Amino acid sequence: MSNVQTEAPRWFTTALASPVDTGRVDVAGAQVHYRAWGPSGSPGIVLVHGGAAHSRWWDHVAPMLATDRRVVALDLTGHGDSDRRAEYGLEQWAEEALAVAKPAGISGAPVFVGHSMGGMVSYVAAQLFGEDLAGVALIDSPVLAHTPEEEEARKQRAFGPKKVYPSRAEALERFRFVPPQDTAVPAVLRHVAENSMEEVDGGWAWKFDSAFFARHGSDHLGGSDPRCRIAYFRAENGIVTDAMMDGMRRRFGPTAVVVEIPDAGHHVMIDQPLALVVGIRTVLASWDVEDSVAGMPG
């Protein structure tokens, strides 16, 4: 990463300068860390990161969604600054995402927005307790299939036993996206990489528990007709094939909103964050209109 130019665009520096609250919530015996933006006590969004990622992947996106909403990004257990567990599973992570919403300042039913594995968590949440959600938006998530991170871990090509690098600089040089992605906003890439590591005995290591790749599966991933509204953002150059998308459309039902983000790789918030923000804002605005119409007298 030493050759990456990191001159930051104004929208990025403005977003990172936005006020942010942090906190922790106990969920089934584990402390779950979160970051939150926007007016507390408002309707809101829970942002759910992908495998081996963390809440700070959303630092530059969340403030742009938080003008009139409370936006919360959590670290799933086994990731970021949350506790580790003996075992991991999509259902447990879905419960964590719901559990942080109210303590973090969201009023009423939240919208879940999940990327990759986080989309799988969000889809399981729609199956488990969709009536408690205002909607779910998935970002380039395979839902039924394994995520790229899981595939690489299973093939032992990445995410093996925790490596400790002697210096922060060396760790930064080894930061890579899975799947590989050459396109990125340089300032975003640098920010995510710098906040993906922690100091440990002997040097620096990535902030995730590699045991999470052995997570439990979930029968809920194969469910149809989710119990809340669904939107799907597909990356044009992402991991979802046409056949996968066709299968998901059938299971999502006829009212699901499906949008493709042009010229985006799998990690959409890294290379096309503004397009992603516009997409999410548009879907939420349309859902707000639906709610207001539904609430009008006869």
TrEMBL record:
Question: Where do the AB hydrolase-1 domain residues begin and end?
Answer: 45-278
User: Could you tell me one molecular function GO term of this UniProt entry?
Assistant: hydrolase activity
Cellular component (GO) terms are: membrane
Per its UniProt record, what InterPro entries does this chain match?
AB_hydrolase_1, AB_hydrolase_fold, AB_hydrolase_sf
What keywords sit in the KW lines? Hydrolase
Gene3D superfamilies named in the record: alpha/beta hydrolase (3.40.50.1820)
Q: What is this protein called?
A: Hydrolase
Origin organism of this chain?
Rhodococcus opacus (Nocardia opaca)
